[in-house]
Amino acid sequence: MERTPVSSSNIAAIGYDPDSGVLEVEFTNGAVYSYSGVPLGEYEGLMSSDSKGKYLHANIKGRYPYSKL
């Protein structure tokens, strides 16, 4: 999946597949996590958020199943 670089202190890039609802988050430490079942609106909210890390923590972590890639 292609990831888009973002401006964030701890997130390097974010990718999303609208067909499968899979969100990939690449952190600045090199770790990549894949979240499944994420709606398009949640991805759009993350990408437009002033703080990607805060949005991820408040709206995605703990709500959607994930795996470390």
The portion of residues forming beta strands comes to 25-35%
Number of strands: 5
Intertermini distance: 12 Å
Q: If you compute it from the alpha carbons, what radius of gyration comes out, rounded to the nearest whole angstrom?
A: 11 Å
**Biggest pleated-sheet summary:** 5 strands, antiparallel
Low-confidence stretches are: none
Query: Portion of residues in helices?
Result: 25-40%
User: How would you spell out the order of helices and strands?
Assistant: EEEEHHE
State the secondary-structure class: alpha+beta
Shape: globular
Keywords:
single chain, 69 residues, alpha+beta, 5-stranded antiparallel β-sheet, 5 strands
Helix and strand arrangement:
Layout: E1 4-5, E2 11-17, E3 22-27, E4 32-35, H1 40-48, H2 52-60, E5 66-68
Antiparallel strand pairs: 1-2, 2-3, 3-4, 4-5
